[in-house]
Amino acid sequence: MNRTVSPKKCIQQLLFYVKPYGFKLILALAMVVVSNLALALNPTIEGKITTQLAKDAEAIMKNVPGAHVHFDIVFQIMALLGTMYVIKTTSQLLTAYFLTDAIQQTMHDIRNALQVKIQKLPIKYFDDHAFGDVLSCVTNDVDTLSNALQQTLTRVFAAILTVIFVIIMMLRINVVMTIVAMIIIPMSIVITKTFVKKSQKLFDIQQKTVGEMNGTITELYTGFNEIQLFNKQDDSVEKFEEVNNNMCKAAYKAQFVSSLISPCVSFVTYITIGTVSVIGCMFVISGAISVGSLQAFIRYIWQINDPLSQVSQLSAQVQSAFSAMGRIFTLLNEEEEDQGGSIGIDGNHIKGNVTFEHVQFGYTNDLLMKDVNFEVKSGQMVAIVGPTGAGKTTLMNLLLRFYDVKGGSIKIDGIDIKDMNRNELRKLFSLVLQDTWLFKGSIYDNIRYGRLNARKDEVIDAAKMANVHHFIRTLTKGYDFPINEEANNISQGEKQLLTIARAILKNPHILILDEATSSVDTRLERMLQDAMKKVMEGRTSFVIAHRLSTIKNADLILVLKDGDIIEQGTHESLLAKKGEYEKLYNSQFANNNE
Asked: Is 365 exposed, middle or buried (0-12, 13-18, 19+ CB in 10 A)?
């Protein structure tokens, strides 16, 4: 995630998602006002009890006729005080209810927005960003933001209200004492601002290391079998420890610097209370204020200290939230894949003629493909061969517009694919990759993923064509057999056959098999070849294969090396040339009678 969103922009974008639930949020904040107003009145009411008792005690000590403790007055004041506590508690409960609802609905919308955004990002984005980092943004960062809003929004608002209400109540008691007590506010702001400035960068690093941690965990658990096979457990532990140590150091620095705010603010508060207490006693002795008023005033200083301390303690969460928001909205602001294209595609009239004309392409500024040219007629089978890294898969990525060419053009039935809408273009294709992907659900649902409106008999026919129907029938629940989340309760070859059945069900105009038979044994491979002959009839097909035995009957074979086509022709003609294809073929079948 490259372009970090500024805090101001983050707040603006967050408000956009909060807006639909603004009424509930307003109700929550209104309850905060009621709660803090009751809180601000409590010390004054408590002070009246102290004042009344002190007055009665003084009268009794002076033997004033009829002097006694006025319990009726005390009980009336206590009843009022109890009412304030009930109002305060009720309003806090209502605040929690409305606030939780508004925030969780907002987080629900943000998670949905992230999921929608991910579906619209170009393939290049995921080539440049670790899967674990993206996952961390959708899960950890949203949770961090949710927790921060839940815990800090009302507290910060309450802190502001408390300070305002308390200052008003303090001014009613004594202006001089209030001026002295107000020293705590600017000093607390200076302390908080100083430490926040130093710690914000540390929190950004902490949130980044969380993403790195998720990426590392995903990588290690995905390759768990290979790690065990090559006895690399110690290396994996070392790698994890390195990332974990980095995260620990980043979190320690961020949390430690942030945690210094609260004790510094409290230190200023203690000094202020000591100073005000001395001044207040002098005013009580002179009769300027009552002892109950002094008690209330000291309580008010603590009421100022509480929100200031809470805000300072929450600074770590606030800073983590801003770091999380930066990552969330950076992802949401990423440039989406341009669907482009103004030419409509009528699938019923697509024949499947494909032409590459002087195509140039490179993932960076350096060109991988400098001048690729070939033509495929409708219904032909094209095989693409070459060493690893030659550009075989890249060629198909360009055809599917996962990437756009940097020069030249790719045409289907004479129409430049740049003029076609990407989604409409991809509807013409079925793609079967070497790395299979199945989701948690039944076998039936996984095959039907190719065409969701397919009937069950069509799903079964597709499975039969892919030679996987018999295998499915042997399972306990047949087509309702559940595939688990890791899809490891069936073999790799069987998974491959299911993805091929899915592609067959889609009934595409153009079929792409990218090493699709690499995970299938020889017996199944031959069965699959027979099935694929039927599937390929009447449609253009591209086959990327290391097993050259599977492409002998191809209408056109493209031999790639270093990104460019160095040879093209039929199997027999390429062998006759005694070039690169012959070397590949002989190296593969040197010890084979074929």
From this structure: exposed
Residue 1: band (very low, low, confident or very high) from pLDDT cuts 50, 70, 90: very low
In the chain, where are the structural domains located?
7-332, 340-428+508-594, 439-505
Multiple choice CATH, 340-428+508-594, 3.40.50.300, 2.60.40.10, 3.90.320.10, 3.10.20.30:
3.40.50.300
**233-259 vs 261-286: helix axis angle to the nearest 10?**
20
What is the rounded end-to-end Cα distance, in angstroms, of the chain?
A: 51
DSSP secondary-structure letter at 391?
S
Please name the helix (run of DSSP H) or strand (run of DSSP E) that holds residue 574, with its range, or none. Answer: helix 571-577
Q: Tell me, what DSSP letter sits at residue 336?
A: P
- The secondary element (H helix, E strand) that includes residue 286 is helix 261-286
| DSSP code of residue 489 | S
- Calculate mean pLDDT across residues 154-170: 81
The answer to whether 460 touches 498, Cβ cutoff 8 Å, is no
Cα–Cα distance, 130 to 139 (Å, whole number): 15
C-beta of residue 421 within 8 angstroms of C-beta of residue 502: no
Other Cβ atoms closer than 10 A to 583:
11
Residue with tokens 């006895």: 231
Can 7-332 and 340-428+508-594 be said to share one CATH topology?
Answer: no
The CA–CA distances, whole Å, from 140 to 6, 108, 374, 481, 506 equal 20, 14, 48, 33, 37
| 51-64 burial code (b ≥16 CB/10 A, e <16) | bbbebbeebeeeee
CA angle at 409 for the pair 405 and 410, rounded to the nearest 5°? 95
Task: Locate 85 and state its tokens.
Answer: 């506590």
Instruction: Give the pLDDT confidence of 348-364 residue by residue, as tens digits.
Output: 678 889 999 999 998 88
> What is the C-alpha separation between 83 and 80, in angstroms, rounded?
5
- CA-CA distance, 379 to 376, in Å (whole number)? 8
Contact in structure between 392 and 372 (CB atoms under 8 Å): no
pTM for the model:
0.68
Least-confidence region, from 22-26, 124-128, 501-505: 124-128
CATH topology for 7-332 is ABC transporter transmembrane region fold (1.20.1560)
- Whether 591 shows a pLDDT value over 60: the answer reads no
Instruction: Please enumerate in sequence order all residues whose Cβ is within 8 A of that of 81, keeping only pairs 6 or more positions apart, or say none.
Output: 42, 45, 46, 49
